[in-house]
Design brief:
7-stranded mixed beta sheet; disordered N terminus; 22% helix; binds NADP nicotinamide-adenine-dinucleotide phosphate; binds zinc ion; 6-stranded parallel beta sheet; 2 domains
Length: 384
């Protein structure tokens, strides 16, 4: 793989010749890449996709972002993982078939699917548009029990097709580049949601810890909301790039003097680091009534939080998980309005394992995106 040289996507992608009154209805087999064990790496597989039920949308996937959560999950770093597992929850593609009751999506439309494909639809969280916090457990796009489809394990977007209930499908504005829009479906909404929850507006100072897939979206979104942005990074090599993304200040988090100089200067911190790290130095950079949202979910324990650091400035230490469906649509529309997309490096399916290693090593600016036209055909593969 040549870093920094995206594979140009094909100019025109033929849509599968299938509509709701297609002469060939029924389930379809998708070409996919996934893991068969925690140490298998990603290998060619197939996934059976159900025939669209009345509320279903079938999507011919064009691009799927590679999230660090995909690495954690496929490598079994979060424990209890069923295999085979096809990861991928930053999905953009075009509608290829719709069920008989679907009126809000049309064949050929550009759509997206993020981290969840179902939820109970009845609990307070679901009724409040917070499906990600469903009290009965959201159905993740991959690796979840599919509560309405025979309890099968859901399989994600490193695949040529996916079938999802219309309630969990997003409209992707046509003005957005499909490859660069794919990471919005996880990295984008995961950072947009806490920024909105904190009501970030012009003049606020936002800190972003970790300049990876999530972190670079947090910079772009906070800037688009009018905030001043300070980036904390462990990588000296990212200083110039962070400024190019719009950061007003870049602080090397291992430089104690620079950390001290940032004392009491920030309103809200979005922490996206994927590994255990000490949060106490970051609390000291917050003002009274500041908040730190931890978004990264390391597989090992974090160093303890010093309660005094929180108490002395009434600081809130919070978590946040992706976003609800309505908020995800709001984020996509916000991105179209403000011209915000992800910085991506498009990769082929046979580059996925190398891309994972490079992501763990922090060698991506800033999101790998799989071009699904490189997945090959479903023949002669094992089933996921
Ligand atoms: P990523 O692209 O790999 O970025 C993580 C960044 O963390 C790196 O670029 C690096 O930034 C920083 N970092 C510092 N020390 C590190 C270390 N020892 N190992 C790895 N990274 C280190 O990952 P991502 O896709 O943005 O995801 C970040 C985390 O968020 C993951 O744990 C992921 O599972 C989680 N996540 C959570 C949600 C949610 O809903 N809460 C959603 C998606 C992902 P610098 O080089 O700038 O220091
Ligand atoms: Zn993700
Ligand atoms: Zn629910």
């Amino acid at each position: 793989m040549t870093p920094g040289r995206p594979v140009p996507p094909p100019l025109a992608r033929p849509l599968p010749d299938l509509t709701s009154d297609s002469p060939t209805p029924g389930p379809r087999i998708a070409a996919a890449y996934g893991a068969t064990a925690s140490d298998s790496g990603l290998v060619p597989l197939t996934v059976a996709r159900r025939a669209p039920k009345e509320d279903d949308v079938e999507i011919a996937i064009e691009f799927c972002g590679l999230c660090h959560s995909d690495v954690h999950a496929t490598r079994g770093e979060w424990g209890n993982q069923d295999y085979p597992l096809v990861p991928g929850h930053e999905i953009v593609g075009r509608v290829s078939r719709v069920g008989s009751a679907v009126e809000d999506f049309t064949v050929g439309e550009l759509v997206g699917v993020g981290c969840l494909v179902d939820s109970c639809r009845e609990c307070d969280s679901c009724l409040d548009g917070l499906e990600q916090y469903c009290e009965n457990g959201m159905t993740g796009t991959y690796g979840s029990k599919d509560r309405r489809n025979g309890d099968a394990t859901t399989q994600g977007g490193y695949a040529s097709l996916i079938v999802v209930d219309r309630r969990y499908v997003l409209h992707v504005p046509e003005s957005l580049d499909p490859a660069a829009a794919a990471p919005l479906l996880c990295a984008g909404i995961t950072t947009y949601s806490p920024l909105r929850h904190f009501d970030v507006e012009e003049g606020d100072v936002v800190g972003v810890v970790g300049l990876g897939g999530l972190g670079h979206m947090a910079v772009k979104l906070a800037k688009a909301m009018g905030a001043d942005v300070k980036v904390f990074t462990t990588s000296g090599s990212k200083i110039a790039a962070a400024r190019e993304l719009g950061a007003d200040e870049v602080i090397l988090s291992r430089d104690e003097a620079a950390m001290n100089a940032a004392n009491r200067s920030i309103d809200v911190i979005i922490d996206t680091v994927a590994a255990p790290h000490d949060l106490n130095p970051y609390f000291r950079t917050l003002r009274v009534d500041g908040a730190l949202f931890q978004l990264g979910l390391p597989s090992e324990d974090m160093p303890p939080v010093n309660p005094g650091a929180l108490i002395r400035r009434r600081i809130a230490y919070a978590g946040s998980m992706i976003g609800g469906i309505a908020e995800t649509q709001e984020m996509l529309d916000f991105c179209a309005e403000h011209g915000v997309t992800s910085e991506v490096e498009v990769v082929r399916a046979d580059q996925l394992n190398e891309a994972y290693d490079r992501m763990v090593a922090g060698e991506v600016k800033y999101r790998f995106v799989l071009d699904t036209s490189t997945l090959g055909t479903p023949s002669e593969r094992a089933d996921a």
